[in-house]
Amino acid sequence: MTKEQESPRQIKARELVEAGVTLYPHRWGGWENRVSAAVANSYGTSLKEEEKTDKQVQVAGRVMQTRVMGKAAFFHILDDGVKLQLYLKRDVMDEHDKEGTYNLFKKRIHTGDFIGVTGTIFKTKTGEITVEVHKLTLLSKALRELPEKWHGLKDTDTRYRKRHLDLIANPDVRNVFVTRSKLLSSIRKTCESLGFLEVETPILLHQAGGATARPFETRHNALGTNLVMRIATELPLKKLIIGGYPGVYEIGRIFRNEGIDTTHNPEFTTLEAYQAYTDYNGMSAFFEKVMTDATDSLGIDTITYKDQQISLTPPYKRAFMPELWKEHCGEDIHEVLEGKGFNRDGLLALAKKLEIGGVAGAPDAKIFDRIFEAKIEPLLIHPTFVFDHPTAITPLAKCKENADGSIDESICERFELFVAGMELANAYTELNDPIDQRERFAEQAKQKDGGHDEAELLDEEFLEAMEQGMPPTGGIGFGIDRLVMLLTGNPSIREVILFPTLKPE
């Protein structure tokens, strides 16, 4: 690049190099010696206006604003999400720094640069905590301007593609991901307190399982075999229950080759937990404990989401699918069920009666889902466990045991938790009968042959593990991303994933 092709930023950088300044030093002060802007701001309660301290501090951060006034200048730096004002005065800097850096940096430090300074703290007439700079060191020269530096970054596509700029420009966005981190920490503490062991299971598999979803496919060259990315962690976690752990959980990335909308991203984060000797009722208590601990740690008990004020304080409402179906669809749910499968004629007739179109060629499970999503799901605003779902769409859960001990094969012991009309959690009384499980997998294979390309596959390795004996077990999975959406009031999943999936530019 010739000098004529240089940008104004690059010209300033070259001038600094020519003056002997290192643009990108290896280190500065060390983390343990650094006083963050947040700590410096703690002086705000103890100092009076225009009062100074003699305590030397070190602060570092990104320059966000500069005001140069002859022999003095004011800078604002951003450090750990907090802005701090710096005051540079020529005679003060000349006294403490014999290299004369005031003139050198006055015209060559810009917004976006990282600097480190040493100095003393005082409070201005306007009550702003400020560091009087004795020495200034350039830590990193920014060769690009910050976008819309005075107004913040608003364009959503740019924000998602260039999240680093979004975090610089928009403090509220930064706080979303701080909340996410604190939530994950709280969940881990709760699971540990309840005796669960955190584990890790494979992402690359020979066969997808544990959910109804299409996987991403890849190839392992060294093994010479095709692999898929996991769509759930359920089956390997159940193997660990079979292996003797009483309770296991995993927080991890899941990958599903599906559409993208405000509540779906092809890669997302879930928690799945399994506990021996309990059932789906035990999992509802587990989820309420997780939520209680999380909301307590975050100081959030009520949210406003999509203009609805919602309390997150347990206990949550318990509802039952057969009762909701009867109330809002106008007939007994068994009219659309047949054994462990669906009555297709009954589904189509009900969809026509309820004026739900586009179902003629759809698989039975999709028709059922569309009816539920149209007539029931939007009504579930406050946290609600919906218990007892059709066995036909839940091949990994035990059939419903009635109060008299009889078994309803059409209904299984599964709940989904809904908040603001959005599914948040899914739990089963886990099927532990290997003979029944094999039959369920076989039925799913028929559905796949019939055009339901997301149906569960038969997993021979999992069946073999079950045949070793699996205790009664409760299992639950819930989406971390959707939970963060609720806690931060964000209507789009892309707002709570640092790097959401996007089309190439």
User: What best-fitting shape do the alpha-carbon axes yield?
Assistant: elongated
Just give the CATH class of the largest domain.
Alpha Beta
CATH fold naming of the largest domain: BirA Bifunctional Protein, domain 2
Radius of gyration (CA) equals 29 Å
Strand content: 25-35%
Number of helices: 15
Poorly predicted regions: none
> How many domains, as an integer?
2
What structural category do the secondary elements indicate?
A: alpha+beta
Name the CATH superfamily assignment of the largest domain. Bira Bifunctional Protein, Domain 2
**Subunit arrangement of the protein:** single chain
The main sheet comes to: 9 strands, mixed
- Distance between the ends: 26 Å
Task: Please provide the count of β strands.
Answer: 21
What is the percent of helical residues? 25-40%
